[in-house]
Amino acid sequence: MVILTVIVQPRCAMMRFQPIFSRQMFTMETPNDAPRLPRKRRSLAQELVTVLSEQIRDGHLKRGDKLPTESAIMDAHGVSRTVVREAISRLQAAGQVETRHGIGTFVLDTPSPSGFRIDPATVVTLRDVLAILELRISLEVESAGLAAQRRSPEQLANMRAALDALNEGAAHASDAVASDFAFHLEIALSTGNRYFTDIMTHLGTSIIPRTRLNSARLAHDDQQHYMSRLSREHEEIYDAIARQDSDAARAAMRLHLTNSRERLRHAHEEAEAQRG
To answer: Are residues 9 and 103 in the same domain?
Structure first.
């Protein structure tokens, strides 16, 4: 039997966020001291997602609250960093939290049960990702154009930080996905139109092909070369938004997403040919 007690410390006026977990908060009771089989990593990640989701839903964690650090969560739950990152990725995909690079992970608005959402669990095949990319083209091309017109200096700086983090974390899939999503989400935020932001948030990290697929491997491409091309495409989008050239921003975003779609379509065709 697992008894779970969560203690939430009140936020202070100075916005100093304290860890919401401590090792003493979790008491494990096993009937008759019977040996327990080790749980799988997926199960551990889902348990952590459940705990944090309940706190967000119940209002114990409110919009703008900062989650504890990865190390604090690892220590509280006795799980690995991989488990924590997987759980955070799931919360991001569900639109419950967002990661601000160099600052931390923060709670977003509590998602409405009836709101639009694409379940990342349903984005599992190349065909699924190609369909998502078609949706992204229709959404993000205009988003980039509006962002070029309306972005603030701070929002542009956030885009730059996300791209820098993406380049630095390219070797680590979870870091790269979070940074990639942060860049595209910041563009949506820069439109000043909350509906762009809402849709991007609900899509979550399922919009990033590398969350589900190793595109470079499927296309028999060198990973460094693959990431270099992606970096150039992102930089062209950023440069157009920086100089507030709406037409160039739309064109750069369309090129980026079309190239992503074609890379994946080519990989899909190769996979089908090998299977047949």
So the answer is: yes
